[in-house]
Amino acid sequence: MSLFSTGEDRVTVDEAVRYTRGGDAQAVLLDVREQREWDAGHAPGAVYAPLSGLVAGAALPDVARERPLVVICRSGQRSQQAAALLTARGARVVDVKGGMRAWSAAGYPVVDEHGNSGSIA
Prior knowledge:
The chain has 121 residues and is an alpha/beta fold. 31% of the residues lie in helices and 13% in strands.
């Protein structure tokens, strides 16, 4: 059985948390924003792989290989592009509706590059 529901290609932030948080998390939260955005604020525990690098052919970070991916960006547009690209590479992928803006608005934590309270750039 697949981690994601059949035909599921987008998830809410609450679903993203359910898939990627806790000791039994089965998926990786993959942030595809650019470096300055990541440095300003990202979800704790997220893995960084900018869309620009993925488009240029960069490999996924080791921790994200061979695992289901929940892709997030600032608002949901770049994550849709990344999800399509990664799906074409054979990955199991969904993207987060509303991105980090929705994540923050839902009250989930955002940390900066030093682990302090961050912001969405």
